[in-house]
Amino acid sequence: MKASRTSRCTIRPASLENVETLVLNYVAGNFEAEAVWRRFGFKSAIMTAAAKLEELE
User: CA-CA distance, 27 to 34, in Å (whole number)?
Assistant: First the structure.
């Protein structure tokens, strides 16, 4: 989804509904997504790590 469409479809309607916080999940290493969200003012707040159970010792 392009940044302008994201803004039009998500951010603007949320502000009209008095939403105070939007939370966003994206895959680490998706630098294009990170650049777009940073332009909107999002900042990293929580890091999550994942592993398949069979890969854990």
Answer: 9
Domain locations in the chain as residue ranges: 3-47
Under DSSP, the state recorded for 18 is T
Distance CA 38, CA 41 (A): 5
Q: Are 14 and 23 in contact (CB under 8 A)?
A: no
Give dist(CA 32, CA 20) in Å, integer: 25
Residue located via tokens 């999002």: 42
| Average pLDDT of the chain to the nearest whole number | 84
Q: How far apart are CA 40 and CA 38, in angstroms?
A: 5
Q: Are 26 and 40 in contact (CB under 8 A)?
A: no
Whether pTM > 0.70 for this model: the answer is no
